[in-house]
Amino acid sequence: xxxxxxxxxxxxxxxxxxxxxxxxxxxxxxxxxxxxxxxxxxxxxxxxxxxxxxxxxxxxxxxxxxxxxxxxxxxxxxxxxxxxxxxxxxxxxxxxxxxxxxxxxxxxxxxxxxxxxxxxxxxxxxxxxxxxxxxxxxxxxxxxxxxxxxxxxxxxxxxxxx
Length: 162
Hints:
By secondary structure, this protein is of the alpha/beta class.
């Protein structure tokens, strides 16, 4: 799973983590802090999940109580439960989880490792190129690429010559 992190919505067909209390599009996964009203609004309208930026287990328990059916991504606390997935920095590999990657250099730490997903910072990656790579429209030289290798390779488009 590839997620994009940005301050504003980008019109690409990938799930996007955005600091907001409202999930105005099905592709938006709200990023909320320890604000009860914002958390409640985000949980009420979210469809794919919510990223909770906290170091408190109480906030995670509250979110699970309000929406047990929704995936809660936790940014800031190394906690994994049913329906709760941690987000770690790419340099701190701890096993299967979602990893936050700022740029291509940070992505090298995840090559060959098992991950649940990658949260790419849109400032370090071109969202449209990432979307094309995920859809398989950009080719790579590697034979069996994992997610990190596919995002690291120098893409090229196959051009049909008539």
